[in-house]
Design goal:
alpha+beta, Alpha-Beta Plaits, four-stranded antiparallel β-sheet, about 25% helix, SCO4226-like, DUF4242 domain-containing protein
Length: about 90
């Protein structure tokens, strides 16, 4: 199944405690996880003011439709992952 990176802005994320960061990101990303059998939250990357959530989903449009349907906060971008490169990548 294709993977997508959803970019969201969360001002002050880097200033939060690890516990607060976990709660903030889970509220932001886990909402999509499980509401559709074809959508799975994989992991998230946190920066000072943004979070990048990796999802498996049938398509970008499927993610956008769910975000609109559940009236979730807007996203900056959704990008399909075409390749993974790194020392541990297969």
């Amino acid at each position: 199944m294709p993977e997508f990176v959803i970019e969201k802005e969360i001002i002050g994320l880097g200033q939060q405690s690890p516990f607060q960061q976990d709660l903030t990101v889970r509220r932001s990303c886990s909402t999509l996880h499980g509401i559709s059998p074809d959508v799975q939250w994989v992991q998230s990357y946190l920066t000072e003011n943004k979070v990048y959530c990796v999802f498996r989903a049938p398509s970008e449009q499927a993610l956008r439709d769910l975000i609109a349907q559940w009236d979730l906060p807007p996203v900056i971008s959704i990008s399909e992952v075409h390749n993974v490169i790194g020392p541990d990548a297969e």
